[in-house]
Amino acid sequence: MELKNKRVLVVGLARTGVATALFCAPHGAIVTATESRTEAEIGESIPRLRNAGVTLELGGHHEETFLRQDLIVPSPGVPADFPLLLAAKANRVVIWGEIELAYRFLHGTLVGITGSNGKTTTTALVEHILRTAAFPTILAGNIGTPLISCVESAKRNSITVVELSSFQLELIETFRPKISLFLNLTPDHLDRHRSMKIYAAAKARIFENQTEEDAAILNADDPATTPYAPSRPRVYWFSRKQRVAEGAYLHGDDVIFRHDGTEETILKRGEIPLVGAHNLENVLAAVAATRLAGATPQAVAQGIRSFAGVEHRLEFVAEVNGVRYYNDSKATNVDATLKALEAFPGHIVIILGGKDKGSDYTALQKPLREKAILVLLIGSAAEKIEKQIAGGVAIARYETLDRAVESASRTAHPGDVVLLAPACASFDQFENYEHRGRVFKDLVRQLQPHSAGVTAAKSSPTSSSRT
């Protein structure tokens, strides 16, 4: 891919857009970045972009800017059917997502991981195992670092482990992981994709360019995922319920990896530090991926045993006056919140709400009735959630997270759990789920300034991940 003298438009100046612009400009591209926010709203990245020679179009978009480009790279937050993108496409402008551009420059082996839930934990676990096995690794994608930012550091012997959202996959062209994982499929992002069929198709694009030399790993226990098993790459499975022909599965208390008719025991279930059925699935997926990537059974087991979990995934924050507070800000859909509720026996004060993604919250009604003593609703989705969960559980609505935390601290008694597991995106009040989680943790720590916080790695009942 030759960028020199190419007219490149970057749409959106969040983390990925800034990284894309700052990659293209030094490669000789004539870069313009367009953003609906103003310079004051964007902040500190503006000087870096200007110093790199990027032309900025701020406070709105202009059609003529889109039509005169050679390449447009929209940020993941920009829908593929954004009218100005469609106009540019009709004008034969090439449109790629950031991961497609990065892939064309990336050296080494690529492991790509997608799914509705568990992506971040599985991505972090795979990278941790491979690093434990002494492979040179890079962790990138939807987990926090744009893939484009990793291109310069990737070597031919590197293994880059990438978390991939449906937003990122919908604008690929040649993007091809050596090993791909499709963890599961539940309703999510229907405000963007409009239907489960479209959403699922975007996820399944992870297999699109793989060949017979590559590997695809799917969840044998998830009937929504299994129909998307591809025909060209070699297919492996993971299962906690059944023996699989090729892949990883649970047999009694043993985690088994089966390949070419040979079975090997990796470790015992009791050695896995992450609790919960969903995390057992994440571990099985990681076993299959890392064994296929070349890690020894001993290194895989060691990596799993030493994995401390991921921030914002049922992360223990502190115990204040006998009440335990947990941050699961990454629970951005209903299925993720259900899994968070399953991690506790009951006596839960739960904070729900944020930006609705077209979700159906009625599935929460029964478990909330059985386990929650109070539901605190925040954000723009509060009214919809209240209508769909009403009946059998006390509900209170607050405008902001700080008011909800204050109410939770007054309501909860010693032995109770206060859980942030919103079932919604964060974008109505926060920059992202990490920002929301950090604010929650700060608010909890302010409840009792001298309370002793305990690290999530030591105290969380489970670490889970879903986007």
Amino-to-carboxy terminus distance = 31 Å
Largest sheet: 9 strands, mixed
Q: Tally of extended strands?
A: 20
> What is the approximate shape?
globular
The largest sheet has its strands arranged as: 7-8-6-9-10-11-12-13-14
Average pLDDT score: 92
Strand content: 15-25%
SS content category: alpha/beta
Tally of DSSP helical segments: 18
Radius of gyration: 22 Å
Helical residue percent band: 25-40%
Low-confidence stretches: 449-467
Descriptors:
467 residues, alpha/beta, nine-stranded mixed sheet, six-stranded mixed sheet, 18 helices, globular, disordered C terminus
Describe the protein.
Helix content is 32%, strand content 22%. It is built from 18 helices and 20 strands. A nine-stranded mixed beta sheet has the order 7-8-6-9-10-11-12-13-14. Helix 14 (365-371) links the parallel strand 17 (348-353) and strand 18. Helix 7 (119-132) crosses helix 11 (277-292), helix 7 crosses helix 12 (297-305) and helix 16 packs across helix 17. The two termini are 31 Å apart.
